[in-house]
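Input for the complex:
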Amino acid sequence: MIITGLFDKDTAIGFHLAGVKDLYITNGDVLKKWNKITNRDDVGLIFITEKNADEIRNQLNEFRLRNTIPIVVEIPDKNGRIIAHIDYISSLIKKAVGVEIIKDK
Amino acid sequence: MPEQKIEGINPTRMELLEIRKKLTLAEKGHKLLEEKRDALVEKFFGIIDKRTKLYKQINIKFKEAFSDLIQSQMILGENKVIDNSNLIENIGEISFENDNIMGVKIPKMNKDNINQNVKTLYSFSDTCSKLDDSQRKFNDVLINLLELSDMEGKIKSLAIEIEKTKRRVNVLENNLIPRLYATQKYIEMQLEEREREDFFRRKRIKAIMESKKE
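Predicted:
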C-alpha cells in the first residue's frame, strides 16, 4: 500500500525530497482532493497538514471512525504546529482513560 | 441508588436457581472483562509514552528540515528545488499485518519494502549542500513519521476497544449484578413468606381438626 499526503506546496516539496511521490497538493480545494484520496483503495497511510485537516475536520473524524486503515496522521507545516489545535490522539486518550495524561510544555 | 429487581419474574424456586446461575456467570464475566481492561490499559500506556517522546522529536526535526528547505529555496530558487525534488528515488510501499492483543485486532505496519536511504539522482554540481541537508532531514523525519503513524494506528484501535470494555464492565458492575442480587433477595423473601404462611395454615387446620374431634 502506498504512502500519500494532502499538503500545501512547501510541505509537498519536502516530502518529494524524502521520496514520497504520490502527493496531492491543495490550493483551496481541500475537500475535493480529500475525496479523491479516499476513493482510492491502495492507500495505506495519509499524511495531512494541520491546516488542511482543520478545514475538513468533520469528514476526517468520520473517516477515522469508520476505517482502521488507512491511518491518517496530522503533521505540522512550515509554520510549526498550531498551538490551539486539539490533537486527535490526545482526545482519544482522554476519552479512553478519562484523564489527560500528556502535558505539553 | 435504589435497588431494583428485574421485572416480570415469578417468585418460584425454579427462577431462583436460574438467577443464581446467571449471577455466577455475570460475576465470572465481570472478572474476565476487568482483567482484559487492565491488560489493555497497561499496553496502552506503554505505547502512549513512546508516542509522546517521538511526537516531540518529530516536531523539532520538522522545524530543522523546513528551515533547511527554505534556505535551499533561497539559494537555488523555488523552481529549481521543485525540479530537483522530482529526481529522487521512490521510497517504496508499506503493508499491514494484524497483531492480536487480548483478542483485539491491531494493525501492525510492515516496513520491509521501505527504502531507508533513498538515492538522490540530481547533479551535485548544480545544487547546493543545503538541498542535500534538507533531503536527508526530510527522509529522517519520514522514517520517524512511519513509526509514529504505526503507533497512532495502534492507539486508535486500543482506545476504541478500551472504551467498549469499560462500558461493559460498568454495565455489569453497576447495573446487572446489583439487579440480579436484588431479584435473588426478593425471591428468597417471597419463598420464606409463603413457607411461613403455609406453616401457620397447617397449624390452624390441625387446631380446628382437633377441636372437631372433641
